[in-house]
Specification:
alpha+beta
Length: 195
């Protein structure tokens, strides 16, 4: 008699509960991690990049173009909305690991909290050395996304910097996937096979 073929789980990071309150899913224990980002740091990075780019741009008469110098004050509300937009897109990239205990619906920009907390539940085979690069990639993705939106709104459509920021944003987005899918060297990722 032929032994039945093992059919793997459709997604290796999908959580499969083995009991009502177990923290072991698919044969691997999962651990809770928190990814913290600062809204003030994001605004500071956006304002700094805009100031540097503004200093390099020149008006037709040879003077510095100061159109992007007071970005945080002029576009503060929009920056908050864009921050929430790109945080949610980054969460979508890490959806297999996102741990949201309560469903939240609504506009997160009404919150005045400086700290953004993304709760993740990662398996034991996830490479912990990739934690800091993951945090940096999420931060860079949000800042590059805001800069892209800002330049697309304020600059003429044929400006080269708009395409550069879009490419930077896409590269950061790909980095998030690379870091969130990393595993410890030599680890075996397979569901529990009891027989």
């Amino acid at each position: 008699m032929k032994k039945p073929r093992h059919i793997p789980w459709p997604w290796p990071y999908h959580r499969h509960p083995t009991g009502p309150n177990d923290e072991i899913f698919g044969g691997h224990p999962y651990f809770e991690r928190h990814l913290y980002l600062s809204r003030e740091q994001i605004k500071f990075d956006v304002a700094s990049q805009a100031a540097v780019i503004s200093r390099t741009r020149r008006t037709p008469d040879g003077k510095e173009d100061n159109a992007l110098t007071d970005i945080a004050e002029q576009y503060g509300g929009m920056i908050d909305r864009w921050t929430d937009k790109y945080v949610n897109l980054a969460k979508g990239r890490m959806a297999a690991y996102i741990l949201e205990p309560h469903m939240r619906v609504g506009n997160d920009t009404l919150k005045q909290e400086d700290e953004i907390d993304i709760e993740l539940q990662v398996p034991d085979f996830w490479d912990d050395t990739m934690w800091q690069p993951l945090v940096q990639a999420v931060h860079d993705y949000i800042v590059n996304g805001i800069m892209y939106e800002l330049f697309a709104l304020t600059l003429p459509p044929k400006e080269h910097i708009i395409n550069v920021k879009r490419e930077d944003m896409e590269e950061s987005f790909a980095d998030i996937k690379m870091y969130i899918c990393s595993s410890k060297p030599g680890s075996v990722r397979k569901p529990l096979q009891p027989f």
